[in-house]
Amino acid sequence: MNESQVSFLEDMMWQRGVLESAQMAAAFRIIRSNDLIWSRAVRDYLVGEREPLSDLIAWNADATRMPYRMHSEYLRQLFLNNDLAAGRYLVDGKPVTLSDIHAPIFVVGTVRDHVAP
């Protein structure tokens, strides 16, 4: 993702004040198009077999509308500029660094998952 893509999303969101749930869901489908679009299309239309709704498809269908400001700040500060990792992310005007955050975590690593190929 680059500045041009973020600006494009911001322009779309500005018109309605939110990123619509259909647009959010489309982004997830594009990330894993083989799993979320093509394999299902081949099975449904070419083979003629309806696959039962999987957890992944159900999760993907449960989309949200994200407010313009929230999504814009997320895309720019946390994703595009990586401000949190660099110690530049501000909360109440004060920078927050990852080393300032003390919380229990549970981490799972996979070779392949539903989001990252």
Structural class: mainly alpha
User: Which consecutive residue ranges, at least 5 long each, have pLDDT under 50?
Assistant: none
**Rg, nearest Å:** 18 Å
- Overall geometry comes to extended
Read across the widest sheet, the strand sequence of neighbours is 1-2
What is the average per-residue confidence, as pLDDT, rounded to a whole number?
78
Strand tally is 4
Question: How is the secondary structure organized here?
Answer:
Layout: H1 3-16, E1 18-19, H2 21-31, H3 33-47, H4 55-61, E2 66-67, H5 68-80, H6 83-86, E3 89-91, E4 94-96
Antiparallel strand pairs: 1-2, 3-4
Q: Could you give a short description of this structure?
A:
With 117 residues, this protein is mainly α. Helices cover 55% and strands 9% of the residues.
Description:
The protein is mainly alpha-helical and 117 residues long. The chain is built from six helices and four strands. The strands form two sheets. A two-stranded antiparallel sheet has the order 1-2. β3 (89-91) and β4 (94-96) form a beta hairpin. α1 runs antiparallel to α5 (68-80) and α2 (21-31) crosses α3. The protein is extended and about 55 Å long.
